[in-house]
Amino acid sequence: MPTAYAVMMVRDALQQGENLLSGLNISLEVLEKKEYFSYTDYLAVLGRYTDWNKELDWGFSFGDRLGIASHGVLGFGAMSAPTVRDGLALLARYIGIRTPYTRCCLSVVPVGTASGNTVDTSASMGASIDSSLVNSHSGSEAIRLTFELDEQVDIYRRRVCETLCMVFQTYIESTGASSTPTLWHFPFDEPGNETHYARWIHGGYIFSSHRLVLEVPGSVAMVVSAFHDESAYQSSITQCEAILSAREQDPVLTAVKNKLSAAYKSRIGELSPETIIPDANALAADMGMSKRTLMRKLKECDTTFQGIRDELLREQIHMLIEDGKLSLAGISHRLGYQDAGNFTRACKRLFGLSPSSLRAQLANSRPISSTGF
């Protein structure tokens, strides 16, 4: 998770003596130097900021301060796009590289109809999207952006939607276009601070939608950006695509292996083991997805969470027993087992041998059976 949002929240609270990073083992000075940090920690900061900030419209004010410029290469690419429509297409395609809890689908909607031709922004950003959005459609067609929010930010749904609203409104207006003809659909009932919506939102808005939706009429979408720079725009697309592609090269499998391996190594190295070996729920939360999504992604890689954990556990047990510096009870404790019985069952499942039999086998330098693995 990029640190920009968290840094702003922490600075706000610190000005009034509230430390949102308390207990998270990271200081503001360290956070300011990092480009990314744990999604779980970000959710903790967001939750604390929500509890601390009593302003009813802080979602809007926060988004307004962020603007489009705080979104790095993604924001720069949108600003340098030829038209508002091109910029929105880029934002929809790559929004996940800045806000991993958000996905966005862009659709072309004929004015006066209830549905349009959806452009799947999970496809490549190249000429296919550019031509379908810029060359093939007239200004009479509206652009619809439909946002999907991760279930873990659902309790902050209203604040997140308000912030996204301001970021996109700021982008549209920064190009020289007017946001007055736009229409927002919010996925919640009319809130108690509805008067703030009239203050902050320059276009129209309605409540009780199934999803967060932004509709941009052709008169706005076809406005040529005052900051259009074709070279910068194409360079931004290349950079965004590289970031996205790097994350899509089995990123979940790699992340799960790395996080579990780091946890085992940390725990084994502690004289008084304190590091918790994360389960699937904890890892999924840290990676910004549900457990079901994590399991599905691992299945697509022809593996399972249990399989990955077993592989790493087998390596650690083998290494520690062969090393001989710890007793079997000590190894059991270092690996997080609450009692010897659980450790024995794990060894029998992974090696087909009890811990003592495995130690004897290793001492005699005989091949280890893989029965049960």
Word description of this protein:
With 373 residues, this protein is α+β, with helices and mostly antiparallel strands. It is built from 18 helices and 6 strands. The protein has 3 domains: 1-54, no CATH class; 55-247, no CATH class; 251-363, Homeodomain-like (Arc Repressor Mutant, subunit A), CATH 1.10.10.60. It has helices at residues 4-14, 28-33, 39-52, 58-66, 72-80, 84-94, 127-135, 157-174, 194-200, 218-221, 230-248, 251-268, 280-286, 291-300, 305-323, 328-334, 340-351, 355-363; strands spanning 102-110, 117-119, 141-149, 183-185, 204-206, 212-216. The model is unreliable at 113-139 and 365-373 (pLDDT under 50).
- Amino- and carboxy-terminal Cα gap: 35 Å
Q: Output the radius of gyration.
A: 25 Å
Count the DSSP helices. 18
Share in helix: 40-55%
Task: Give a nutshell description of this structure.
This protein has 373 residues and is of the alpha+beta class.
Give the tags.
373 residues; elongated; Arc Repressor Mutant, subunit A; alpha+beta; 6-stranded mixed β-sheet; single chain
What is the fold's blueprint, element by element?
Blueprint: H1 4-14, H2 28-33, H3 39-52, H4 58-66, H5 72-80, H6 84-94, E1 102-110, E2 117-119, H7 127-135, E3 141-149, H8 157-174, E4 183-185, H9 194-200, E5 204-206, E6 212-216, H10 218-221, H11 230-248, H12 251-268, H13 280-286, H14 291-300, H15 305-323, H16 328-334, H17 340-351, H18 355-363
Parallel strand pairs: 4-5
Antiparallel strand pairs: 1-2, 1-3, 3-6, 4-6
Helix pairs in contact: 1-3, 4-8, 5-6, 5-11, 12-15, 13-14
